[in-house]
């Protein structure tokens, strides 16, 4: 669901003109569960809630509701009105702007959930000898009731008057003589003041057959079947929403499309790949690349894809100071990746200081125009400077917490930028800072609620403080800005404030941080005492192992005879592009370790011969394997297979191969990146890609026509209108990919059509 909103002519909360004295905000709810909240807007009867919300709905629901509240300082927030749209009606309003009249918020209309009823109609002979009908009603189960109301449904009383039943209990049987309608009400009796209405459902008696059991699920309805009460004009709410519902098929149906997307990094040129085509036809929709990014992340294909896309963008960039400044496919993919992968990184780095800023509530306004009466600008400047220093220090000292995948992407961007603009010494920093500072940290500081750093929008004064901090962090983090003069600031007050940060020490901190997250400069080293097998020995006896100190950094692996020794290396292995760390699969570990009788063994394979290492214990061995796996994950020549045992007496003991240079007999375990725990449903993401492509079939056809036109036309190159809409480097390869996409989509659509033929049974869940 994608949502935008605006209100006008908001009516009074209580009494005439009361609304003009209060600030307002808007909330978005799935049934009765609030999922989003706008920030509080200043006093106005026509506020513009200019915020976009994009979210995936994780559970079944009945209504999507929008509530407008008036913010009150001394009491709870007062509801102004609401707009509720049933799930079945969302498609009717999707993709359009509509004005809705606000309806009063009535507790008896705040209903959600469903009830499973068992009903049976029996004929009985009454006391006077006439034949009558008795109805047996049993409540089997309730689902999706408000969480706050799911308790207390335990009272055993009930009433039966004029064909209506009022229940306070689940799983209960009773008889009564109905008229034409059975109404079942659910109440919660936990409230000490009065019972709380949970909802009702009405069942026509005529649908019941004699002497047969009727079981069905019914949605709970508002009291009085949702009839609207007369009320004053509460105003209107303009909504622009996009609602998309996907039906996910079995996994086997998505294999062809998924494979086509995953081979995108290997397609030459990258513009002819399926993933690039998806981003090309959806340039205007920012969220369209998100399912593709998730798929590539899940299958460890993101880094090669985004590197190829970034290289294509750099080829079309003429000036170094405009690098990665536009809203391109590369920047959109990296933005989405950082939001997914960097959640924990932001929480560790920024949340403590953001919480302090929001809870201390110090005034930090330094704009003379916006100062309030009694404010001291020097005190405010001191407060702001303290906050900025804390945020800046938290960021520049966080390199060790930066997720490895983000480091891989930044390393690739840095390399590509230096290759494209070799004469510019600053481009290696601006290529990274344009993402990590401008698009990641600065945005998270400005909108902490969007990154789950805070539960709600901060109040206007705190929001202003965060805005000033964000602007300062953007400037501090931009290497290009740091090389400019102070006169580049438009605001005089920012010019004066930033003087205190124009120091070489501050610039060096930024450079050091960017170096640590984007190059092979060592961030930190790990050193432990281990036992290693002596080089050149033929057997694996106890005397062939020596105690050494093993040390690893992001640049090299070395071992020494004494702790802290640096002048003399017994062995130094360059990690970058030369050594490969391998770990066997579970069954191979047993075969390999059985020859040593120890579970703390591992091996490092490099250009000459394997290095066999025994850690102090199995936990240390696991830590070493994780660290070595991370620092070698980008090696271009990393081995795909390795030998699980040693080479002695002219034979590999694991596979009995007599060739010392024979390739490994077991595949290396794929390195799991630290701090990257993604719960991704690949079938769901592939279905989302299919829906996006299907809904834009016209553009796919236009792209096919453009490829055909470019392939046939032999004259001088010219900018054709249909070709300028797309990035087409090689029309034949692009046309071939489009045909493959078309065939895969037709088969998927056929699978959907087959499964859509069945109809649900009445009353089924």
UniProtKB/TrEMBL annotation:
GO terms for biological process: intracellular signal transduction. GO terms for molecular function: GTPase activator activity; zinc ion binding. InterPro entries: C2_dom (IPR000008), C2_domain_sf (IPR035892), PH-like_dom_sf (IPR011993), PH_domain (IPR001849), Ras_GTPase (IPR039360), RasGAP_CS (IPR023152), RasGAP_dom (IPR001936), Rho_GTPase_activation_prot (IPR008936). Residues 284-478 form the Ras-GAP domain. SMART domains: BTK (SM00107), C2 (SM00239), PH (SM00233), RasGAP (SM00323). Keywords: GTPase activation, Metal-binding, Repeat, Zinc, Zinc-finger. The keyword Transmembrane helix does not apply. Residues 1-100 form the C2 domain. It holds the Pfam family RasGAP. CDD domains: RasGAP_RASA2. Residues 523-633 form the PH domain. This is RAS p21 protein activator 2. The gene is RASA2.
